[in-house]
Automatic annotation (TrEMBL):
<dbReference type="GO" id="GO:0016989">
    <property type="term" value="F:sigma factor antagonist activity"/>
</dbReference>
<dbReference type="Pfam" id="PF16220">
    <property type="entry name" value="DUF4880"/>
</dbReference>
<dbReference type="InterPro" id="IPR006860">
    <property type="entry name" value="FecR"/>
</dbReference>
<dbReference type="InterPro" id="IPR012373">
    <property type="entry name" value="Ferrdict_sens_TM"/>
</dbReference>
<dbReference type="InterPro" id="IPR032623">
    <property type="entry name" value="FecR_N"/>
</dbReference>
<protein>
    <submittedName>
        <fullName>Anti-sigma factor FoxR</fullName>
    </submittedName>
</protein>
<dbReference type="Pfam" id="PF04773">
    <property type="entry name" value="FecR"/>
</dbReference>
<feature type="domain" description="FecR N-terminal">
    <location>
        <begin position="19"/>
        <end position="60"/>
    </location>
</feature>
<feature type="domain" description="FecR protein">
    <location>
        <begin position="129"/>
        <end position="225"/>
    </location>
</feature>
Amino acid sequence: MNASVSSHDRNDIPPHVLDQAIAWLVTLQSGTADTAMRSACEAWRAADPIHERTWQALQAVEQEFRTVSPVFREHAFKTLETAQRHRGIDKRRRKALKLLGVCATGVAVSQFVAGQSPWRHWTAGLGADYVTATGERRAVDLADGTQLMLNTATAVDVKFAPDLRLIILRQGEIFISTGKDVSSSTGRRPFLVETAQGRFEAIGTRFLVRQEESQTRLRVEEGAVALPAKAAGSRVIAESGQEFVVGGAGPMPVTESRFDAIGWIDGALVAKQMRLEDFLAELSHYRDGWLRCDPGVADLRVSGVFQLDDTDHALDALTRSLPVRIERRTRYWVRVIQS
């Protein structure tokens, strides 16, 4: 199939689908893919029109870069390899990428990724002060006494100045217990978290900030946080126990949540009558590959505590409480269907 793919189509590709397409391309061109693996890739492409469109877009970019100079190919491959190290991709996949047509696919992937404005899965971590890979959680103690927890696939910068403490959340999710800043010679400095939606100012607090695709989610566990104001003089203060999302319409309170927003700190996804489709979307943040469910089971309700360090076990647990079974074509292609 040689369908033409415009740059507009490429920009519309969802981040998780691009991730899957790249994983398939790496696998198939590594020289180790067998017939079963190729059949699984074909099944993935046929499962959804967006999969095939993404595959064709990635193939088109690869062809465009088959003729670039060896020097540029090598530079682009090194850029991609750096991104992979930040993302925690295993040595097997890094080795496989080196086999992709004298790095042509590495170049193509690098260029294709750079053109995806919402897709920061690999590139957001480049040069960041602290980064976690998919499924990884990390605790960091900052110089002012602040405790910073990074959730899966998160990238942050820390900018401390004489008059300001600033955390820049590039992507992902963090939980912060602000320090007392006793060593500062200028007194306790303001503490701010910056996301794509603006700056949040902590007021002696413990709180969670999550960068979502078009909004920021905030939950305050202790103290208070001042939210970015949509207009002058209209700043909202989030108090302990409150949750807000901040998007184009400004801060909006969240009155009901179907999962424990900070359960991940203890390594758990705690669901409370959560739709199966939403549950899988949340679980997918902690594993590589494609994870979806059949529309016929999407509205089934999930409740329980699921350990994030073993997402396959969490999926298997669903079969013991719901009328579903797990269809695994590869470790990177998993679907929950009616039993």
